[in-house]
Design a protein that fits this description.
Layout: H1 33-47, H2 55-71, E1 74-77, E2 83-87, E3 90-95, E4 98-101, E5 108-111, E6 119-123, E7 125-130, E8 136-141, H3 143-146, E9 147-149, E10 155-166, H4 171-176, H5 181-198, H6 202-206, H7 210-228, E11 232-243, H8 249-318, H9 320-336, E12 343-344, E13 355-356
Helix pairs in contact: 5-7, 8-9
Amino acid sequence: MPWKNQGGGPWGSGPKGPWGSGPQSPGPRPPDLEDLLRRGQDKLQTILPGGNFSGMGIALLLVAALAIWGLSGFFRVQPDELGVVLRFGKHVRTVQPGLNYHLPYPIETALLPKALRVSTLSIGMRIIDDTRRGGGTAIRDVPEESLMLTGDENIVDVDFTVLWRIKPDGVGDFLFNIQNPEGTVKAVAESAMRDIIGRSNIQPVLTGARTTIEAAVLELMQKTLDAYGSGILIQQVQMQKVDPPSQVIDAFRDVQAARADFERLQNEAQTYANRVVPDARGRAAQILQTAEGYREQAIADARGQSARFLSVYEEYKKAPGVTRERIFLETMEKILGGADKLVLDQGATAASPGVVPYLPLTELGRRTPPAAPQQGGSTR
């Protein structure tokens, strides 16, 4: 059967296609453009004086249009923004937050970057919404950003945060010199951190060198961004997590515990040495001082004895007999002065023993006086 016999076309009657019925009318047809223009002209004629486009009406219309065009130059800058005014695309001035004015478009335009806001960029981790915790947040690691190689060929997992903002005098550079500011800051931060970590050993990175690494990364980032003419100021670099890879973290913790024990024992030994060594040195100094004093005393005593002997010898040469007798008496006095003495009589007999009682002269003063006689008694 020919197609023309199937109802107005090769696919049947009506606006049909080869896969069934054609598109249906979605509803009422849109208004005609000519109808809209005609209605606008009618309303405009009712507003203009005289009901037609006279000279006065056209002048009023132009004045109103110029007023609206002039008022379109007012714009507001929010507290965290700076207004960058462009004149035919060229940066001419920067305005502070508040209500400002620029020549209407297309002479001047205004851009409003968030120049006074501090932005935070996380590298090695992402903060995501955790729907399982009732709308809380969770941190997801990004190993391709955080795993880095140290100078002693160890792998370390570093998560850090960069705080940055636009320089107050670099807004124009920020707008026109870089296309993707956040991506640029992220690439520079990751590159700087890998550079500093690659020149450090893993032990300082894991323990006490974080402040030094943060300062070095900030300095390198700022130097690189200034070379790009980005107009970006890096305010702070914060290392959030520095750990070995998860596969070997237990072994690294054992090593750190062993190092901590070693340092503790070393500190204890040093403390003991600091206590014992000064004590030993003090005792040694005391012994040396005692020996020095004894030496000085012995030398002085020997010199005194020799001087005394020489003086006695000089006197002996002048009067040998007298001096010899005096020396003998002094020597006997020293010998017999503290000894018990007995006097033997060579003419003793059997009736009278030869031992003669000896009363030292010092005992005479210690003898008690005789008792006084009683009154009224007789004395024989």
